[in-house]
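Bench log, entry 3. Co-assembly request; chain sequences pasted below exactly as received.
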Amino acid sequence: MFTSNPFSELSQMSAFITPAVMQGYVILMVIMVIGGTILDMIHKKSAQYFFENSKKAQKSAKRTVSSGEKASLAISTVTSEILTSSEFCNPKRRISHLFMMYGFVTFVATTAIMIFAYPTTATATPTILPMLWHVGAAMLCFGGYWFWFFIRVDVSSEGVSLFKLERADIFIVSLLTTATFGLIWSYCQSSGAALTTLSFILFVVSSTTLFSTVLWSKFAHMFFKPAAAYQKKITKADGSAENLPADFDLTDPAVQKQFPDIPEYMGKNPPNMGLGIKRESANHY
Amino acid sequence: MPTFVYMTRCDGCGQCVDICPSDIMHIDKTLRRAYNIEPNMCWECYSCVKACPHQAIDVRGYADFAPLGHSVRVKRDEEKGTIAWRIKFRNGKKDFDLLAPITTKPWGTCIPQLAGESAPSDSMRNSHLLYNEPKYIQLDKDGKDSLHTLESNGLEIKEGVQY
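Structure output for the full assembly:
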C-alpha cells in the first residue's frame, strides 16, 4: 500500500480514468483555487484593505524602511511565519497547524507529481513518492483530527457541541475527508477490497469540495496570512506599529528613569513576573 | 462602536471570548474569528483588548467621550511582566507611551476579607458618598424587594454560550 502509486494502478484498472482525465482534473482544481482566491479577494476587498492599511502606516511612520530591509523582512516572513507558523502563541495550535500544513503540501505535491510524471504503470514510480503521499495524508489527518476534536475555538472556548457544523467548517471537514478517504481508497485498492470504488468516489467528491469552495471557506488564508504578517513586520520596522506602544528594554536605564514604577516594583534587572500573570487557557464557559 | 476586531490579526484563539465580562465577544461562524456581537452592551473595560495575544482588538470609543482621530492602544506583555499604553491625541500634539508592571496576583491569593473589616462609621454613612447605602443595594429590604440574585428570581446559568 505504502509503496504503490494508487493513481497509476487506477489508470490501469479503469477504462474511464485515463491519465489525461486525471491531469485535466488537477489542472481544473488549480484553476478553481486561483479563481476562488481572486474572487475572494474581490469580495472581501482584501487588496484595497492592505493598500489602505500600508498608506495609513506610512502616515504615522517614524522612519523610512529601505528596500533592502523590506526584502529581508519578506524573507523572515517566509522563514518564520510561513515555514514555522510562528504567529501562533498557543503551542498546541502551532504544532497542529504545522502537521496540517506540511501534510497538505506533501500530499498535494506528491499527488501532482505522480499524476503528471508517473500516471501509468509503464514507468515505475520511485517508492519515495507514494510513501510521502501516505505520510502527508497521515500528517494531515493527525493535525486535523486533533484540531477538530480538541482545539477548535467554538468547542474549547464557547462550549458548542462537537458535532455542530458551521460554514467555517467547510475547509477543515473537506481537508479531513480528502485525506481520510484517500488513505482508505489506497488501502482498499491495494488489498482488493470491495469498497475501492466507493472510497475513490468519496475521495474525489471531498477534494472537489475542498478546491471549489475557496470563495466560501478559509482556504485563501494561506495567501492572506503571510501578507498580513509581512505588513505587521513593516509597521514594526517603520515605527508606526499600528499605534501600539513600543517594545521597551526593561534593563535600559533610560527606560527605568522614564518609568520609575519598573525599577521600584520589578527591580533593576526585571525578571519574568511569574504566576498570576499568565493567561489561563480559554475554556471557562 | 466600542471594541472591534482586526480580522487580519485575529487567529480565533478565544481569549477575548473567555474574558469578556459582558459576554459579548464571540466567534464568527463563517470566519472562525472573534467579533463583538453587541457593541451597545460593551463597557469598554478593555479586558479583551488586553487579553488578546496578537493585539487584534481595538476600541472605537463612544463619540461623546472620545472623538474621532484619537488612538488608545495597549500591549500586555506577559513575558516581560509589563503593560504598556500608547495614547495619541487627535490634534497630533500628544503621542506618549505609558509603561507599568502587571499587578495581577496568582489566582486565589490577595482576596480581600471583607467580613474582617469594620463597618462604615455613622459619619461615613452620612457623608456624600454613602448616604444612600444600603438603600441603593437593597440590603435593608426583605422578601421580593431584597437584593436580586439569580436564585431569588428563579433563574439558573446554563453551561455554554447561547447567542
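Residues 248-285 of chain A form one domain. Residues 91-117 of chain A form the longest helix (27 residues).
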